[in-house]
Prior knowledge:
By secondary structure, the protein is mainly alpha-helical.
Amino acid sequence: MFGLGATELIIILVILVFVFGLGKLPTAAKQLGQGVKSFQDGLQGKDEEIEVGADKKDTPDLIEDKKVEQASREASMSPQQKPTET
């Protein structure tokens, strides 16, 4: 397991007992486990979010919304900021 032997694991456990104390060690381990689970869930959610976004197609409503957004951005720009058409 990660190239650690029994001796190294015992040393790490002893250090953790000194740092956290016997009373707080289970709480710290539980919080660590919840953090890892939350991280994994976040990665899973991100993958699902990407897949859902890839399944969406540009519907006429979305295309129209994009055109309106672009027009409003261009209207709010000063003449110096407006992109020049080539």
